[in-house]
Amino acid sequence: MKIGIVLPFAGDPDAGGMPSYVTIRERALHAEAAGFDSIWLYDHLLFRFPDQSTVGIWEIWTVLSALAEATQRVEIGTVVLCVPFRNPAILAKMADTLDEVSGGRLILGLGAGGHQPEFDAFGVPFDHKAARFEEALQIITPLLREGRVDFRGTYYAAPNCELRPRGPRPRGLPVLVASTGPRMLRLTALYADSWNTAWLGPPEPLAARRADLEAACVDVGRDPETLEVTVGINVSYEDTEDAPGTETPPRLSGSPQKIAAALDAYRTLGVGHLICGLAPDTPASMSAFAEAVALHRASA
Fold this sequence. Notes:
By secondary structure, the protein is an alpha/beta fold. Helices cover 39% and strands 20% of the residues.
């Protein structure tokens, strides 16, 4: 089971505001040196919640491209790219190019988006999200896998489109889809290489979510074993007064041994990749989590 880390990327008043690119780069190199398998970035344009100030975030593709050059070993992933923010054919072109820059280390995580204020602020349509996402997948996946597509839909078009040149992987890079609900799970079963569910702490809720995914696979005639399961989890090193198991959002916490045991449980459940967000998001937290990961790997 691979284990990756979400890098600090957005404004956080508790952590001194916006992280600079220098800080993000240092954290990426720390994660690589600590032995993590992957680094991940969120894709948002801003955050606006009622009665709160606007929170900023960097643009993902610019920073991800820089990190592809700065790092050497770790996979780099999007958790997840908001497909409506970019033309899907151009997005496939961008992904194939970045896979070349990274030497075949990109995991293209895709989602339909859900935070309407950023859509509104940047003039991106928020309607018919599932239908738009379906058309986008009908463009992105054949372009990445076969290098060509001829598609004309209601929301997007890619007539007689080709990717030339191609990136380093003849069959293209892996496509990960984050999804819930029958329609989105069906699209995952039809088009994705990996499925992501998030955000969990202890692994117990995974079984019910996975059952829904497996039902969608059966419905479209796909063997669920051919679809990798990835899980986003929260790992906390913050003091809290919440009783264990009642935290919102749910989280893993406790001794390195306790966290390692939860990682063991995810591995036993057949999870292929864990994508871990840390709180607080600091070098000390990353080092502490690396200790738990080392214990987990030693038990394999």
